[in-house]
Design goal:
The complex is a heterodimer of chains A (140) and B (152).
Chain A (H helix, E strand, L loop, with lengths): L1 H26 L5 H10 L4 H19 L13 H18 L3 H10 L3 H24 L4
Helix pairs in contact in A: 2-3, 5-6
Chain B lengths: L1 H20 L4 H8 L10 H18 L21 H17 L3 H6 L6 H24 L1 H6 L7
The chains are: A mainly alpha (140), B mainly alpha (152).
Chain lengths: 140, 152
């Protein structure tokens, strides 16, 4: 079980990376989810990002249909805190022009200095934040 | 037409990979970020696997004059390490570290909807709208130049 988690993580990562390569090779686009959401919301170029986002939902649904574990809601997690986190993710990835996929997967793959700085920043801030939320405030 | 089919199919691969990797489970993500708890290092292999592929294959792809079904590569040339990049990434890190959701897994929640979806995703969209409004006020030229087609 322990070892298989690493295999799933690696296989999933390879699929994510392969999808990013295919999108660039075939369509010339970067697989950055935050930029796709922004495109759908605010630009005229919304068809392709909407299709990709729909694909993400279908792909995850396919995995759950095949018997993969679906995420379960945390009943004791404060609603206001989850909403606050959602606003932070929207504002933050909008400002930084990229998230885990755009800066993390695609940007690092291109050896972009902006993406390296972004990834190191959000990873380290996330680690500190998780520590504070879980171990200082005791929210699980 | 072909381009649209490709986009959907590649999105499906991406979403399947995301779910397979464990990234769509916020508690697993927090278990990875929480190094002071019983650290779950497995998600390190998601980024490792993905970047391993892109690092190698992006290089080959960019040698081509143009993509298979397109006229050009839409890749940003931006280099400057500016305040919005760093402040934005820090705010994102806070939101990610609180919730365990980054944008991809948040969208993937539609495949297995629960109450967290109906709180987190609308809040995230409000965040994008807020950021857009403030950016338009502060730097209208940037907003016009931003065709939203790039990441990075």
């Amino acid at each position: 079980m322990f070892a298989s988690q690493f295999v799933y993580a690696l296989a999933g990562g390879v699929l994510i990376g392969s999808a990013a390569v295919l999108l660039l090779w075939l369509n010339g686009r970067i697989a950055g989810v935050s930029s796709m959401i922004i495109n759908v919301m605010f630009t005229r170029e919304r068809l392709w990002p909407a299709l990709f986002l729909a694909g993400i939902v279908d792909g995850a649904a396919l995995y759950y249909l095949m018997g993969g574990d679906a995420p379960v809601a945390r009943d004791n997690f404060p609603i206001w805190l989850l909403a606050f986190a959602g606003v932070l993710v929207g504002v933050g990835t909008g400002m930084a022009r990229g998230c885990t996929s755009g800066h993390g997967v695609c940007g690092l793959g291109q050896l972009s200095p902006r993406s390296l700085v972004a990834t190191l920043t959000f990873l380290s801030v996330a680690i500190v934040t998780t520590y504070v939320v879980r171990h200082v405030f005791g929210v699980q | 037409m072909m381009k649209n089919v490709v986009t959907l199919l590649v999105g499906i691969i991406f979403g399947f990979g995301l779910a397979l990797s464990g990234m769509t489970h916020p508690e697993k993500v927090l278990g990875f970020l929480d190094m002071a708890g019983s650290w779950d290092a497995s998600l390190l292999f998601v980024l490792g696997g993905a970047v391993g592929v892109t690092l190698f294959a992006f290089r080959l792809v960019r040698r081509l004059p143009k993509p298979v079904f397109g006229t050009q590569f839409f890749v940003t040339q931006a280099k400057q390490l500016d305040a919005p990049l760093i402040v934005g990434s820090a705010l994102f890190g806070m939101g990610w570290g609180i919730s365990g959701y980054c944008p991809g897994p948040a969208i993937a929640l539609f495949a297995a909807p629960n109450w967290e979806l109906w709180v987190f995703v609308p809040a995230m969209l409000v965040g994008y709208a807020l950021q857009r409004i403030v950016m338009n006020k502060l730097r209208p030229s940037d907003a016009e130049a931003d065709d939203g087609s790039v990441c990075g």
